[in-house]
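Researcher: Good morning. I'm working through a list of sequences from a screen, and I'd like to move beyond sequence-only analysis. For each chain I'm collecting a predicted structure so we can compare shapes side by side. This is the next one on the list. No need for commentary yet; just the structure.
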Amino acid sequence: MWTSERHSQNKVVEQIRNQEQDHITRMKVGDAKEQRTDTKRRTFVLVGLISVVGLGAWWLGDELSLTRLAARESAFRTFQAEHPILVYFAAFAAYTTVAGLSLPGAAGMTLLFGWLFGFWRGMFVVSFASTAGATIAFLLSRYLLRDSIIRRFGDRLAAFNTALEREGAFYLFTLRLIPAVPFFVINAVMG
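Model: Good morning. Structure tokens for this chain:
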């Protein structure tokens, strides 16, 4: 009697091991397919980006020379003197869009605004626009991208959520001060 029970237990254990091994094999095959798809996607994006930059450099050509840019600066300064509210609003909207969609270029825009508007006015525009952009990024992450972020990074988010529950706002503040963690990652994870 003991032998038959032991034998049936061994069969059940063997079946479970086989099912786990099949599951692991399917996961490895799925991961390999996902990696190939991800590599193709990254290659496509890189080729597209290089094409856009090359086309832009070819198309703009002489427009980016220093003499043309200097002439454009004097025209901009004249326009700014005539329509200051429009210029500040456009700068605010552009910076908010770049920050809100987590596009590259915010650091360059910060320096540009400091040069165009002066230190204090540039700092004022950038401070409020970056706050508005971070709020937009958070809202996009919370209401539009939340499910896809959880699906893709759910296991890694568990440690983040645990630390956030334990430390609260101090944890988020610390993450903001660490330059190794980009702001757009924090905005996406906080959603």
